[in-house]
Amino acid sequence: MKLFPVILLISLAMAPAVFVGPALADTAAASGSRDQAAAASSKQDLSILPNAFAGWEISGSVRKGIDAGTIDHAQSAALREYGFTAYEIATYSQGDRKLTVRAARFQDATGAYGAFTFYRAPGTIPERIGNLAASDNERVLFFRGTVLVEARFDRVTAMSASELRELAAALPAVNGPAANLPVLPNYLPQDKIAPSSAKFVLGPAAYASLALPIPDSIIDFGRRPEILTGKIAQPGTDATLLLIAYPTPQIAMERMDAMRKTNPLPDASFIVKRTGPIVKVVFGSIPPQDANSLLARINYQAEVTWNENTGLSKKANIGNLVIAALTLAGIVFVFSLGTGAIFGFARPLASKLFPRWVRPAGEEANFIRLNLRK
Questions:
Q1: Are residues 124 and 218 in the same domain?
Q2: What range does the domain containing 200 cover?
Q3: Residues with Cβ < 8 Å from 147, sequence gap 6 or more?
Q4: Contact (CB, 8 A) for 219 and 207
Q5: Per-residue pLDDT tens over the stretch 330-363
Q6: Angle (CA) 71 76 82, round 5°
Q7: One domain, residues 68 and 177
Q8: Residues 242 and 134 placed together within one structural domain of the fold
Q9: Residue 98 and residue 247: Cα distance in Å, rounded?
Q10: pTM for the whole thing?
Q11: What is the DSSP letter of 211?
Q12: Strands (E), the chain
């Protein structure tokens, strides 16, 4: 009977290993995967542009850096607002032809998209390169993922667009939330906006370069708004559509009231409305009925994007701990029933079948008897 407590203690000591072992394995695997991801990220961070693509090869050294002022001194503040992180400038050669490529990398695709619209010149021709592209003779501007590229050919051929598509495919790929493009451009009525006139803005420096009549103090960039503006393509008008997305509808309502009170264009149309967290404004020489008709087409649609860690991982979920504890209790209970059955039934049965081995002759002396008589 003395064996039962020993067996029970051994089972209790070994049972946590059943649960702790896999947890430690998961932790080690997760740590290893994080290390591999960090190593891959560091390797990716070493270079933006490929050494060769579509018959083009780098000629000379590649200029690299993280100073936004080096790639564009005049608009360095705007680049930082878009999340600029690094740049590369390289010259490629193919026979006697030359191609100069300037690449800027940003923290996410939203910043790359905003910088693309910021540097895109009005009247440029859209191209199918990367996510978005625009060309102006020998100059082609495009972005893919988090990288914005400006390519300048010494002369353009019929294969130039195809060659740049190979360059776009060779740029570092991005996954996860960083690859998400902004939602605000989806609300822009493309058929009413002049081609290549849309500008996406994230900060006061880029906003100031647009020379819009609404002061940035009214916009209130401390509320972290996203701004999209475009020229209205309507004969006989010179008007602009402005969309400002705030974090909450309450902030949008407050800013809308402030804009209406300001009215920076008393001699022109200045119509301000709101849909959800988006303030929509039309200003310029446009009939009020046309402006109201345009604003009526823009209606906010709520969307849910799962781009943050909810904390319900296998290790952080308290439910897994409860299930593990209940499972352990069940194992101990079943083990206790099994050992009790063995000592309760198997031992008496064995003592009858094998009395000489199971119950020695001197066993009677181990029992205390009380011979009580009346």
A1: no
A2: 182-302
A3: 48, 103, 104, 105, 106, 112, 171, 172
A4: yes
A5: 999 988 888 887 777 776 777 777 776 665 555 5
A6: 105
A7: yes
A8: no
A9: 46
A10: 0.69
A11: T
A12: 52-53, 56-58, 63-65, 84-94, 97-106, 125-127, 132-136, 139-144, 147-153, 199-201, 226-231, 238-245, 269-275, 278-285
